[in-house]
Design goal:
This protein is α/β, with parallel strands linked by helices. It has 5 helices and 8 strands; from the N terminus they run ββαββαββαββαα. The chain folds into 2 domains: 122 residues, 2-enoyl-CoA Hydratase, Chain A, domain 1; 34 residues, no CATH class. The protein has a 5-stranded mixed sheet, covered by helices on one side. A 3-stranded parallel sheet has the order 4-6-8, covered by helices on one side.
């Protein structure tokens, strides 16, 4: 499989998806389609025993969903491919790991949070800044209470801290 927005490899029973459009590694519709294609493959491949998400570049794991895809003509497709990533991740029966070395914001934070383990460097900055522009992250709102509790979810989503 050849991809333009991610790199994918399988080696020693480990599959690695590298977000590969530095410096921000924005989740564009095209990148998310590529991720979904790989997740379908990983779900079917019984030889894979672990899935790792990492990043190209040293600035950001992922700065979130690309604002350019938040337009009236693209938003329905963007939401569909974005949500599909999380449905696939829930269905994967192997350990998933996010290796974060830089910013992980918005949709990138949500992608990271759906992994079983997050390994983050000291220079990582993780957050949900959507409230600063007056929007609410629905995936985080539904998922975060399960993993960090309701009060921490409110703090993170309503203050962007």
């Amino acid at each position: 499989m050849a991809f333009n927005h991610i790199a994918f490899k399988k080696e020693n029973k480990i599959a690695t998806i590298t977000l590969n459009v530095p410096p921000s590694n924005w989740l564009t519709i095209l990148m998310m389609k590529e991720i979904n294609e790989v997740l379908i493959d990983v779900k079917k491949d019984e030889s894979i025993q672990m899935l790792i998400f990492d990043q190209a570049g040293d600035k950001a794991f992922c700065d979130g969903v690309d604002v350019a895809d938040h337009t009236e003509d693209k938003v329905d497709e963007m939401i569909d491919v974005f949500h599909r990533m999380f449905r696939h991740l829930i269905e994967i029966d192997i350990p998933t790991v996010a290796v974060v070395n830089g910013r992980s914001l918005g949709g990138g934070c949500e992608l990271m949070s759906f992994c079983d383990i997050v390994v983050a460097s000291e220079k990582s900055r993780i957050g949900q800044p959507e409230i600063a522009v007056g929007v609410f992250p629905p995936v985080a709102a539904a998922w975060f209470p399960k993993i960090i509790g309701l009060k921490k979810t409110y703090e993170l989503l309503l203050t962007a801290r």
